[in-house]
Write a structure and sequence with these properties.
By secondary structure, the chain is an alpha/beta fold. It folds into 4 domains: 138 residues, Response regulator (Rossmann fold); 64 residues, 3-Layer(aba) Sandwich (Glutaredoxin), CATH 3.40.30.10; 205 residues, FAD/NAD(P)-binding domain (3-Layer(bba) Sandwich); 112 residues, 3-Layer(bba) Sandwich (FAD/NAD(P)-binding domain), CATH 3.50.50. It contains 15 helices and 26 strands. Strands 10, 11, 12, 13, 14, 15 and 26 form a 7-stranded mixed β-sheet that branches. It is globular, with a radius of gyration of 26 Å.
């Protein structure tokens, strides 16, 4: 059982990524091997071992020989130390590999099993659980394995349709292009033009091509493209198909996408406009574990992609890489001005612009943006940080998720938090994972006040909030997630906001504005009749993905009520016929 590899020789015939299964049960192991070989044998090397010593020898050999290991699948992970020792070795020797444990069918009926799985994931011992395969083909088993392999491929930039970006430096336009691709929820990787991989990619482009280059899986090469060209090349629509909609949604984050799905599925004609792409801040979340219906977690990028596809299938229109610059009312409809394609008309609007991370305000660090300094999550940059020291600034869920994701790659991760406890702003499940992860340290009552490096970050200056003492530390990357500011500066004065710029809705708007309605404002309605606000941009909202999705669906029901009260007739998909006069 196993493959043609001499674990002690230092040489290997392995060219394909490895799927390693370890199970001390001689009856179970052949069944697992059969399922893996039948389905994945063409593209992965299947290795099966029964003992800890054999498995560890394999792992050590793969690490020394630089053989890619995609998945380590372990049975008997509670009955003995076999599984736990192999999981620890896999984490130490091959940090890029995904680790999963096998559980028997029906074992979820035991409360201890659920607790053991939760503790194992929280403590960072493994990433997923998989039901043991039974009758062949076991499609439930393969659904989970395929999901884990896709997660591994995307994390290591080996997934199909990965876009390559080549630039002369990490900063400037090359960074902006990577940021645009992330906002389009597109898997991508970056390399410097003078690196071996970069020179090979440049050689494949037209002679004399201008950097930075963006190379697509279908062979297309763009030279220093605009963000509009990036969106179009990745399949993102730019110009709306027509000019009159039942409602226009500003923002394609979770709240906006949820409203698009529910609105389009109920027959409304819907246009979603976003100055970036899809997903909003959610695309920077490497793994959301507490979202309903995803027991193994879901990445923000995957959630955004699925929601976009769902809304598109129902008939929603999209316009990416352009902003809404104005809203005015004309008779019984709203006129919405778009930055790239003129004006469209709408019977109602949803404001779901979300928020952006606050800037740190340290000049020398701002100059290294893209060269070790990043605002937002770590999904795109993490694979390049193996063996490096990384810092994350922030104390909310997004910072915790980023730290845990980085800990799979970096030598060390330090959370820098102004508060005295993570529990002041972070979910309990994340706090527990962070506290039990040996790769993550937390510095409380601390802030980043300086740093720098020669063309790339190599150090930070930290200051104790109480004592004001400063410390210089080595750092190869800094991820900043320090609170949010709403994208509301462009709104007309008729739409009321609180002192921080968040939009007031429902009972929160002023009595003066409410008196002009001739009725009670709806729950999520702003001080401009027919304009609703949902998600993070709304005053008093809960800053969670599930809450944003819920508000998006509730808003569609309120739109039904608004149309009924105002005696408006939904145009539906009949609005595909272009409207004159706009």
């Amino acid at each position: 059982m196993g493959m043609n590899t001499n674990a002690g020789s230092g040489t290997s015939t392995v060219a394909r990524p490895v799927l390693l299964t370890v199970d001390g049960d001689a009856n179970n192991l052949p069944i697992i091997e059969r399922e893996l070989k039948d389905r994945y044998g063409r593209h992965y090397e299947i290795v099966c071992e029964q003992t800890t010593d054999q498995a560890r020898a394999r792992l050590e050999h793969f690490a020394v020989s630089q053989v890619e290991v995609a998945l380590v699948l372990v049975g008997s992970w509670r009955a003995s130390d076999l599984g736990n020792e192999v999981l620890r070795a896999a984490h130490d020797l091959l940090p890029n590999a995904r680790r999963a444990v096998l559980i028997p069918w029906g074992d979820w009926g035991e409360p201890a099993t659920g607790r053991a799985i939760f503790d194992g994931i929280s403590n960072g011992r493994f990433d997923h659980y998989v039901l043991r395969p039974s009758a062949s083909p076991d499609e439930q088993f393969h659904q989970t394995i395929s999901m884990v392999l896709l997660e591994w491929a995307e994390a290591n930039r080996a997934a199909p349709y990965t876009v390559d970006v080549v630039g002369e430096s990490w900063t400037g336009r090359a960074y902006e292009l990577r940021d645009a691709l992330q906002h389009c929820a597109v898997s991508h990787r970056f390399c410097l033009a003078n690196s071996p991989e970069g020179r090979e990619l440049v050689a494949s482009a037209p002679q004399g091509a201008q950097l930075p280059l963006v190379l697509f899986p279908d062979g297309r090469v763009l030279q220093n493209p605009t963000n509009l060209e990036i969106s179009q090349s990745t399949g993102g629509p730019i110009i709306p198909d027509h000019t009159h909609f039942d409602f226009v949604i500003v923002g394609a984050g979770p709240a906006g996408l949820s409203a698009a799905v529910y609105g389009a599925s109920e027959g409304f004609s819907v246009l979603v406009v976003d100055k970036g792409g899809i997903g909003g801040q959610a695309t920077s979340s490497s793994l959301i574990r507490n979202y309903l219906g995803f027991p193994r977690g879901v990445s923000g990028r995957q959630l955004a992609q699925n929601a976009y596809s769902q809304a598109w299938v129902f008939g929603a229109d999209f316009a990416f890489m352009q902003a809404v610059t104005g809203i005015t009312r004309e008779n019984d409809h709203l006129v919405v001005t778009l930055s790239e394609s003129g004006r469209v008309r709408a019977s109602a609007m949803l404001l779901a612009m979300g928020v952006s991370y606050r800037r740190l305000g340290v000049g020398e660090l701002e100059a290294l943006l893209g060269a070790g300094v990043y605002y937002g999550g770590s999904v795109s940059e993490a694979p390049a940080l193996v063996g490096r020291d990384v810092f994350v600034v922030g104390g909310a869920n997004s910072a915790g998720q980023s730290a845990l994701h980085l800990a799979q790659f970096a030598r060390s991760v330090t959370l820098v938090v102004r508060a005295e406890s993570l529990r002041e702003g972070m979910s309990d499940y994340l706090v527990r994972q962070i506290e039990s992860n040996e790769a993550i340290q937390t510095r409380f009552g601390c802030e980043v006040v300086g740093g720098g490096g020669d063309s790339r970050l190599d150090h930070l200056v930290l200051r104790d909030v109480t004592s004001k003492t400063e410390t210089k530390v080595d750092a190869q990357a800094l991820f900043i997630l320090i609170g949010a500011e709403p994208h509301t500066g462009w709104l007309p004065t008729e739409i009321e906001k609180d002192e921080r710029g968040f939009i007031l809705t429902g009972a929160g708007i002023s009595q003066r504005s409410a008196s002009q309605f001739g009725r009670a404002p709806f729950l999520l309605e702003t001080s401009m009749p027919g304009v609703f606000a949902v998600g993070d941009v709304r005053h008093g909202s809960v800053k969670r993905v599930a809450s944003a999705v819920g508000e998006g669906s509730v808003a569609v029901q309120l739109l039904h009520q608004y149309f009924a009260v105002e005696q408006l007739k939904p145009r539906g998909r009949s609005s595909d016929v272009p409207s004159a006069g706009v």
